[in-house]
Each structure stands twice: as structure tokens, then as C-alpha cells.
Amino acid sequence: MSFIHDDFLLETKAARLLFHTYAAPQPIIDYHCHLPPKDVAEDRRFANLFEIWLEGDHYKWRAMRASGIDERFCTGSADPYDKFLAWAGTVPQCLRNPLYHWTHLELKRYFGIDDLLNEKTAQSVWERANEKLKTSQLSAKGILGKFCVKAVCTTDDPADPLTYHETIAASGLATRIYPTFRADRVMDPHQPEVFNPWIDRLAKTANVHIAKLQDLLDALGKRHQAFHDFGGRLSDHGLDQAYAADCTDDRARAIFDKARAGTPATADEREAFASYLMVFFGRLDAEKGWTKQLHLGARRNANTRGLKKLGRDVGYDSIGDLPQVDSLGRYLDRLEQENALPKTVIYSLNPADNYAFATMIGNFQDGSVAGKIQFGSGWWFLDQKEAMEWQMNALSNNGLLAHFVGMLTDSRSFMSYPRHEYFRRVLCNLLGREMENGELPNDEAMIGALVEKICYKNAERFFGLQL
């Protein structure tokens, strides 16, 4: 039997029934990812296994560095095949790391390859995969069709034009591709060298001269409307923690003017300015019926030398340990008091906060939408079997799993769609085990309907995307 077989991760008869009958047939709504819209618009064809699999994967780079692999084989100038060989030699060292599961699930689903990847099998895997990559089924658009992806919500900077989304929309692609509004750089008045060029780009894209704070708000509102016009219905914020400091209009104007003049905001000023904008963004989302996403708890760019040498998003981030709950509660309450709290998905990168987040969402359910405030799926370091179960257990014990909107890829790679399958197997194994233990009713139809909802139907209902 191959390592990745039909009943992979499914320990019981009930789990196997739930997965094969109810989970596996469901299509995918990838409501949060980092796929480049350019690749979809141009229907990118990947020249080799390195391009589609290793080109921007910081998960793999971290594992390779930990195995003593030189940086030139990770982000450096080594030949693509040599980089692949370095990864193949690392894979056997990844036993019990989710990378081992993902690697072989991806080889199986994309290329039909059952071999365990290592230095001995590397050349054969490379040659067979590259041959399959020549087919249209594994182009960017072909992959979306192959995995029955109904909708993809990319992550987009409002300072960037939506040119590629326009091209995709006109192409007749069956998978709907929508932009997600993510304005993280506007939170950086403490870094004028980053903040001011971004403001200038926003001004150009929005065609708004930005001289004062109100101009900035007008430009952001204009871009928010542009995303809406393209079918976007989600925003996203990648934050170390929720911002909930008090900030008047006058103080926000003063901080903005200071940063535009080239003087960095203090830590307190940055928190106040970000808090001011997060309320503004909440109002925009609520007015249009959008869903807000809050990704909380990352400790980003911990390695200063690595950041200076290689830049952001190359594997020098980890789980943070900042206090989250009080500021998150204040932020949600501030919007609630204004009747401006949108549908919201909150993701925790620190599992120590799982029960706090799972209980916090219950404070702001208002009966208007089932699961209006969501505790999101395991994210980043937590999108693996153990932590997926932690998240679902916390949600089940303190809320309603029945309204959970399920999994997302949160990935830059077109090779990540088996993560939905992985999640579905974990979900069905959890429920199937409890059915056989007598902790859940042995009612196939009832539990099967729950599986269908979590895998697809809840997301279809909740996000309001045009499918």
C-alpha cells in the first residue's frame, strides 16, 4: 500500500464513510490565499517542479535551513534542479512535521506519484512531474479546475491597481477570482520610509491628492468601493495584536502630518493611528456587508540580519506571545457600540489563545447571521493535524461547530489545494472517532450534513460571493 492511500488519516469506519461520501465530493471556496492574480490572468505554465513547488515556500526554506542547507539552495542563486535536490534530501528529515504529509499528498494529487521523496527518488520524481507540468491541466487555471475551486479570494494591496482581476473577469474563467482588501502598510507611520511611498502609490491608484488625513480616508474609501465593484466581499488585516486605543480625529491628523513630514510616530502614536484606522475600516466593511478577517499573533521578522539580507516573508517569523484578549474585545465592542461590527473571522496564531478567542466571539453574536463572528481555522504554524483539532475542539466546546466556515489555503502556491483535503480528513476522523465512541450519535445523515456544511456550504452562505 502506498503511503498516501484512500483512507489516509481515517482511523475508523465512520471516519471513512464521512470523508468519502460527504467531504470529498465538496467543491472548494478558497476565501483567503496569497495566490498572485498575475499568474491566473496569464494562465501561468510552470517550467519545472521548482517553479510550482519551491519558488516561494518559506515553510520548506525553514526546514532546509534547520537541516544545514546553505541559503543559496533556499532563496539564493543555485540552479532550480539543485534546489530541488536539496529539498528532496531534506524531506526524510521531516518525519512528524506536516511538511512530510503535505509533500507526499501533493505529489500524489498533482502528478500521481506514490514514491517517497528522497535523494534516491529525486531525479525520477523531477522528470515525471516536469512531464506532467507540460499539460494544460496543471497550468494556473487548469489547477483551479482540477481541484473544483469555485472561488478564490486573493490578498490585495489597495495601493495596487486591480488590472489582473479585470483581465481574469473578462476571461470567462469558471473559477471566480475576487480581490481581498488588505491595507497593512497604512499602519506604518512609525516607518516614514515605508509609509510615505505607500501613501504616494495609493494616491496615484485612487487618483486622489493626499495632503491631509481626510484625503487618505477618501482614497481608502474609493479603493474599498473599487474592490466591491470587482466582487470583493472580504477585507483582511495581518496584525501582531488587535488595535483598540482611543484616538480622536485631531490626534490622528497630527500623527499623519508628522509621518508625512518624515518624523517617525512613537509606539503610542502608531497604536493610536492604527486603532483609528481599524475603526474606519470596520465601518466600511459593515456598510457594504463585507466580512473582516483579523490574523493575530505573529512575531514577524525576528531575525534582523535575515530581514536585511532577504526581506520579508522568507521564513523568519514565528508565533508571538503578546496579550490579545482585552484589546480584541475592546475593538469588537467599539464597532458593536456603533452598530458597525461586520461579519468577522478571527484567526489566532498562538494556540494558548484558542479558548479565549472561542469565548470572545460568543460575546458579539447578535442573531442577525448564523456564526456572524467566527473563530477561524488553524493558521500558518497551526494548519496541521494536531492544531486543527485544537481549534475545532475549542470552538466546539465554547460555540457552535455547525456554523464554522472551514478551511482555506493561506498560501502563495498553486500546489496547496490538497490542504483542503487534509483538513477534511482531519475533520472526518475527529467526528468519526466520536461517533464510534458513542460521544456523537451514530446518525450518518446528521453528521454527514455537518461535514458538508463545514467543508463548503457554510462558506458559500457566509461570505456572500457571487459563484
Concise overview:
It is built from 19 helices and nine strands.
Feature tags:
467 residues; alpha/beta; TIM Barrel; uronate isomerase, domain 2, chain A; 2 domains; four-stranded parallel sheet; three-stranded parallel sheet; 9 strands; 9% strand; globular
Could you explain how this protein is built, in words?
The protein is globular, with a radius of gyration of 22 Å. It is α/β, with parallel strands linked by helices and 467 residues long. Helix 16 runs parallel beside helix 17 (385-398) and helix 17 packs across helix 18. Helices cover 48% and strands 9% of the residues.
- Give start-end ranges of low-pLDDT stretches: none
Bulk shape: globular
- Helix and strand content put the structural class at alpha/beta
Largest sheet properties:
4 strands, parallel
CATH class of the largest domain: Alpha Beta
**CATH topology annotation of the largest domain:** TIM Barrel
Order of helices and strands: HEHHHHHHHEHEHHEHHEEHEHEHEHHH
Under the CATH scheme, which architecture of the largest domain would be assigned?
Alpha-Beta Barrel
CATH superfamily of the largest domain: Metal-dependent hydrolases
Number of domains as seen in the coordinates? 2
Give the CA-CA distance, first to last residue. Answer: 39 Å
What fraction, in percent, of the residue positions are helical?
40-55%
| Mean model confidence by pLDDT | 97
Kindly provide the radius of gyration, computed on alpha-carbon positions and rounded to a whole number of angstroms: 22 Å
